[in-house]
Design goal:
With about 425 residues, this protein is an alpha/beta fold. It has 19 helices and 13 strands.
């Protein structure tokens, strides 16, 4: 479909669009001047992870085409937690935890957008600024009257919890009302007419669109993007040791680069469309590539995404480390500056088995996993395959390091603590 809006044309061609309200009217709005749209992020952790990449990248593309992005951080809604499609209730966070998490979330978002006071510069707002001031009875009378319980329990995000006999507290049930209020607030105070979000936010977004229509008699728009999945339908952004976080203190820059460097061949071109700035016609030519040529595209993808998140300065050390990992010269180990490291003291060498180290260092989730990998020749120490009888000693250290390889893609340097 051809749009008047250059943003919608590129967003559609790159695979960002999934569901939307009144696409024709939204196209007219975006082609008539500088549009304003937002994405909301609850701050339930200290960092965003790769699962948030699509809405972040969509907001970045929105700004690229001359529109104004708003980043909403949920200092208020994080006190409840979005229950959408979750089997368990999120733990309630303290104000101190929320404040600490907000620092990290803001750091994750700033590399993607230009913030400032210009017409299309991004701004960041915190919904605690208005949600914390709400008075319960006035809010029910002024906003709650526009919501139908019948309608709310019909949304898939709520229905899935009810049909699976999972608990949905009254606190959580209020989440979509508060998110709808956010959209109304941003329209009235900032002129924001579009909310973007993942496809799991469709019900919450619709509530905001309907609230403004009923309360103000005006039309605003909702647009969702697909969840980030692999070619076989599995969610991306998870590894054997947990989420792929955007902050380097939670997930090393080298591991982050390796995550993209090692994605499945079937997913490379899709990720190029979504996350690279490579022109569409050039990516189209890549679709027939295989083998070594496709492998080179993976490196380009890993470089571009890592540079965007962690800065171009991170690539030199990563490339040097990646080259060093596959050398047979143990002297090169001392230059592996960006590889994740695990410290081990002389006393711990005497009391820790290789299984203990694999688990404690986060390479394996359990002792059982570690033993299975060792029995299957999946663990290497200094490039040599070892079994579960292998004992680490002072002699295992080369220039103060042991290179530990788990499978083909996960690497760690054990550092002798002095």
């Amino acid at each position: 479909m051809k749009f008047k809006s250059s943003f919608l044309n590129e967003a559609s061609a790159r695979g960002f669009l999934y569901q939307f309200t009144n696409l024709e009217k939204m196209d007219e709005y975006l082609s008539s001047g500088v549009g304003c749209g937002y994405v909301g992020f609850d701050i339930t952790a200290k960092s965003l992870h790769v699962g948030s990449f699509i809405p972040i990248s969509l907001l970045r593309l929105f700004q690229k085409h001359g529109h104004k992005p708003i980043v909403l951080v949920g200092g208020g809604t994080s006190k409840i937690g979005d229950p959408s499609f979750r089997n368990t209730t999120r733990p309630l966070l303290t104000n101190e935890q929320i404040a600490e998490n907000m620092v990290g979330i803001k750091a994750c978002l700033k590399p993607f957008l230009k913030f400032g006071e210009g017409e299309s510069d991004a701004i960041m707002v915190d919904n605690a600024d208005w949600l914390d001031k709400l008075e319960y009875i006035p809010f029910l009378r002024e906003t709650g009257k526009y919501f139908s319980i019948n309608r709310m329990i019909g949304f898939d995000s709520v229905k899935s919890k009810l049909t699976d006999n999972n608990s949905l507290s009254f606190l959580e049930f209020n989440y979509m009302v508060l998110q709808a209020h956010d959209f109304c607030e941003l329209y009235q105070k900032r002129g924001c007419r579009i909310q973007f979000g993942g496809q799991d936010q469709w019900g919450n977004i619709l509530c905001g669109v309907e609230l403004v229509r009923k309360k103000l008699g005006l039309e605003i728009f909702g647009c969702t993007c697909p969840l980030l999945t692999t070619s076989d339908g599995k969610k991306m952004g998870k590894t054997a040791t947990g989420a792929v976080w955007l902050l380097s203190e939670m997930y090393s820059t080298y591991d982050f680069w390796q995550y993209w460097r090692n994605i499945d061949d079937a997913d490379v071109i899709k990720m190029m469309y979504l996350f690279s700035d490579t022109p569409l016609d050039e990516i189209k030519k890549m679709e027939s590539l295989q083998g070594h040529e496709l492998n080179e595209i993976k490196k380009l993808l890993a470089d571009e995404i890592t540079a965007r998140v962690h800065g171009h300065h991170s690539l030199e050390a990563i490339h040097r480390s990646a080259a060093g990992l596959f050398t047979k010269n143990p002297q090169d180990l001392e230059d592996l500056t960006s590889i994740p490291k695990y410290e081990l003291s002389a006393a711990e060498i005497e009391t820790s088995s290789l299984v203990d180290i694999l688990v404690n260092a986060g390479l394996c989730e359990s002792r059982g996993d570690a033993k299975r990998l060792l029995r299957g020749n999946g663990i290497q120490v200094n490039d040599a395959v070892v079994d579960e009888n292998y004992e680490i000693s002072r002699d295992s250290f080369l220039n103060g390091f042991i290179k530990l390889t788990c499978g083909k893609k996960k690497h760690l340097l054990i550092v002798l603590k002095v």
